[in-house]
Amino acid sequence: MNYTRRIKKIQAKLRRKKIDAFLISQPENRRYLSGYTGDDYGISESSGYLIIPARGKILLLTDFRYKAQAKQDVPWATIKIYKQGSLRLLCKLLPDLNVKNLAFESHYTLFSTAQNLKTELGKKGIQITPLEGMVEKMRRIKTEEEIDLIRTSVRLNEKVFGEIFKNLPEFETEIDISLAIESLMRRKGAEGTSFDSIVASGTNSSLPHAVPTQSPIQKNKSLTIDMGLVLSGYCSDMTRNFVPGEPDKRYLKLHRLVRKAQLAGMAAIRAGVRCCDVDRAARKIIADAGYGKRFGHSLGHGVGLAVHEPPSLSARSTKKLRVGMIVTVEPGIYIPGWGGIRLENMVVVREDGCENLNKDTTWLDI
Amino acid sequence: MNYTRRIKKIQAKLRRKKIDAFLISQPENRRYLSGYTGDDYGISESSGYLIIPARGKILLLTDFRYKAQAKQDVPWATIKIYKQGSLRLLCKLLPDLNVKNLAFESHYTLFSTAQNLKTELGKKGIQITPLEGMVEKMRRIKTEEEIDLIRTSVRLNEKVFGEIFKNLPEFETEIDISLAIESLMRRKGAEGTSFDSIVASGTNSSLPHAVPTQSPIQKNKSLTIDMGLVLSGYCSDMTRNFVPGEPDKRYLKLHRLVRKAQLAGMAAIRAGVRCCDVDRAARKIIADAGYGKRFGHSLGHGVGLAVHEPPSLSARSTKKLRVGMIVTVEPGIYIPGWGGIRLENMVVVREDGCENLNKDTTWLDI
Asked: pLDDT tens-digit profile of A274-306?
């Protein structure tokens, strides 16, 4: 991955903004700019920070536990280890680097952390400047190299789904399936799941974010499987919906409606189109059939190093799609007491349309 | 769980501070005060917020996806659903509740979110006040009811470990073991793992936070298994270290040293003792034997609804232990190129000593 190119681009932006250095705390941004694979335990337990100076070599700050990993992942950066917290090390390092104005990621820095930075760095004559979304903005547009990595992630995810689907009768409960998914992903070389798999049978499937339970898989009811994995840092995300036994008329009708909405959404995607217009194209199909209120979420979201990232295919976003963006297209209908149906593919935005990254067609067109 | 008592305590504190309402964003605090089990996807994708007014009924704000879960978990709260983000709903609700001064959790609110709150609520004449750690402070001291829940979590964790240990020859790689652990946990009724299990064989065990790999389990080398689960919201956390085959002299010597340090740490624990003194009691054993630099982390941490929470048994903490706190005691020695050994139990701080929550004694005293 061309980290140098990415860093040079950020550095040029920093110089234009008269910022001396940029503290990167957001984990996917950190990985995007350096390749560092350290895992955080949430925002309060970081595995490290990057300092991108406006000119010159970047620094990676971490603690003793991640030292070996940092050196292995980012041998070309200056690695600094903090023993008594990152703030104390920053107070020591930044004056040596002649930093007078430090930018920080205001959308991934806790309010109390920012206050401490302001107070302690202020004592050293260093000013802090909130910066929001600079790296995320770059990350929205994927290079062909990144698209290939995401394609490989999607392919492996489909392979795992395929094996699960083939062996469906072996599983008794939702949890059985979700464990088998996660286990297969790891055995096939995934770094992990990109989110906790959703396996929802019958009425459980009416919750878009259902958590797998010990409930048995109901043979003649809707079964939603929403799953994704991480490979080389890049996420996949796919939902398939089917009935393990015999679907009834209602299922068939709603499934076909959701699929029609998905195809309409995909057909609306090309460079230059507003996100809200893509959402509307799919939503109209569902609304016209009288189920508008049963489709309560947005049509899709960006996917890359994070499983949820910009852009959002939401009714409220007037932003325009650009070549190289990757988004999910996932309409759904959820009926309390009955169940839900969601179908999700990932597509790349191209000049004149979209490229569907999913090859799996299980139960899409029934 | 007595949520009413907890909320009344917070409300009394708010009234003393002249705060009209407190916005709770930290997930474990949210669960502690309401029992709401919604899962967040990191700080940027919350499954909801509590509003604790200084007087009266609490509110739970969430979105469409979590509506059913919110109603099921917290039927006694007022549930409000936001469609266009939590901020817009807050702007609408707070004036109706006559809130002039809203406190927010500054240690679990993003800087940019706090800025938006300040701007938008400011327009309604509402002032915001950062509050740090009020609920965490309450959470440090566990009631006997909570201790029982944690004991049950520890017991189930040990049961899972016991089955893994018994079937050790079945597993080929670190990942095989970690998958089996997670699968057993879920099958036995755990809500999930409290952290990604660490299974580290041979030289991998020299990384305190090793990620399981496809490396085969080495028969005559150190094997570290650090695992924990969540049951009824409460976490367990335990590390056992052993050699699947025959330990050599060096392993035996270092293992006994770590165990001696652990026992010294446990012996130092009782109400009124400073955290740093407990850390020192254990560290001294390791340092006196010449391995001080090989024990790079703190002796332990609090465990409860979160797997890492206050207090910290750290060399820098002069805070005093109090009856009802639960902490881990987990010294370790890590030698690059050779391997590492860590032993971890969980104990309850009592008036005159500590109560060891772990009954498992596998390979502790060899």
From this structure: 999 999 999 999 999 999 999 989 999 999 999
| B177 and B256 assigned to the same domain | yes
CATH code for position B301: 3.90.230.10
Q: How many domains does chain B have?
A: 2
Distances (CA, A) of B80 to B77, B83, B291: 9, 10, 56
The answer to whether A114 faces chain B, any CB pair under 8 Å, is yes
- Statement to judge: residues B223 and B336 lie in one domain: yes
* Residue pointed to by tokens 């430090």: A102
Structural domain range at position B239:
144-365
The predicted pLDDT at position A179 comes to 92
pLDDT tens-place string over residues A53-69: 999 999 999 998 888 88
CA–chain centroid gap for B227, Å, is 12
Instruction: Out of B98, B113, B139, pick the residue that ends a domain.
Output: B139
Residues A293 and A269 reside in one and the same domain: yes
Chain A, 58 to 97: residues with Cβ < 8 Å from chain B are 64-66, 68-69, 84
Handedness of CA B56, B62, B64, B70 (dihedral sign): negative
* Among the partner residues B112, B297, B308, nearest to A107 by beta-carbon distance: B112
For the entire predicted model, the pTM comes to 0.91
Omega cis (within 30) before A247: no
- Provide, as residue numbers in chain A, all residues whose Cβ is less than 8 Å from the Cβ of B175: 186-187
Considering the domain architecture, whether residues A235 and A103 belong to the same structural domain is answered as: no
Question: What residues in B contact A296, CB-CB < 8 Å?
Answer: 64-65
